[in-house]
Amino acid sequence: ADYDLALQAEPNFPIAYANRGAALAYSGRPREAIDSVQVALRLSPKDPQAAVWHNFLCISYRQLHDVDRAIDSCRTAVNLNPYAWWAFVGLVWSYTAAGKTTEAQDALAALQRIRPGFTVEGFRSNMYVTSANPQYRQSVDEAAESLQKAGAKMR
User: Fold this and answer.
1) Positive or negative: CA dihedral 102, 107, 23, 8
2) Tens of pLDDT along 117-137?
3) Which of 2, 82, 134, 143 has an alpha carbon 20 to 30 Å from 107's alpha carbon atom?
């Protein structure tokens, strides 16, 4: 509701659209999240936070089981910011869902290079703090399972 108020006051405010999209994704409303983030990207395609915004798209597309678009969104995030560890998680999750084991393992290796202490348990506990929404937590659990299948350390 606060983002809607901000957008009423300033309808061309990309950060409000992007953050609204994040809130919607974490609330289990991925279709609405995608619409909001896409507006942010249209308003500010070269925004310094665009990698984060593409990751919101990745999460939303994965919640909708649209693996190809999730992969594209996560790849874009990584291309914009090669240290975007969270986008590598999205790639592992998406590649695993697509049955692309080698690509999932490659994405995990890249993740481990930039986050050497990364563990599945740490990921899950950090992401659970983000939202208590059951759909969002189910997506976190799916991502965690994908990480484990790709060979990530549990602890």
Assistant:
1) negative
2) 999 999 999 999 999 999 999
3) 134
